[in-house]
Amino acid sequence: MVWRIKVRVFLIIISILQLLMIILNGIYVLRKMNKIGKEDGELNLIIKMCFSFSMIVVAFLLWRNNFEILRNYSLLILLGMFFSAIGDMIMASIIKLKNRLIGGMAFFSLAHIFYILAYLKAIAAYKESLNYLVFILIGMYIFCIILWRVFVFNSTKSLTLNIVALVYALVICTMASLAINISLTVSGAWWMTTIGALLFILSDFLIGLSEIKEKGPKNQSVWVWLTYVPAQMCIIYTLALL
Hints:
This protein has helices at about 1-35, 45-65, 70-90, 100-125, 135-150, 160-185, 190-210, 220-240. It is mainly alpha-helical. The protein has one domain. Helix 1 (about 1-35) runs antiparallel to helix 2 (about 45-65) and helix 5 runs antiparallel to helix 6 (about 160-185).
């Protein structure tokens, strides 16, 4: 019991530091870009990587301290965050690939697949149903395809990139659909997973809009991270509140 209290205190402290680190750096970069008249601001690379790896630590602690019905769920969430961190390193060009964007989507797809498996495990652990899932999936897929066609598809880009973007969008919408389903069927803090999933869609939408459609907002990388950070935090910290 004492150990769990210490872990919870640590998680509270680390979550506050994570948010402050990202928000303050984001404000600094946006103000600096506005002052010098540029539109390609980026958060500090060290700060971004500190967030990614600190989230692996958080997910690991939550897994190690979960001995109840969500043990398998927490392990899958940890694996999802691990692949997310690899995706972050690819997108930051720390890991060099021939096509950074396709590589990033590939590893984030793996992350979302682990999140999907985690939500399925949680639903099974609580012996809840998937009654809402078909309707949620239909709605999310229609929304996803329209969003991709209007705001992401770019005929001047390679067909491979456009198709990979659509497949990735369908994967993340599947993850979001399961997050919505579990928040509707299980009581508790599961609503946070839905918020996290929707923020993840927003974050990746900004990437698609900027890097594929090439019509994104100013300083898009900053806005991507300001939505991505709370997305991951909502997904992973949910376990601490259950």
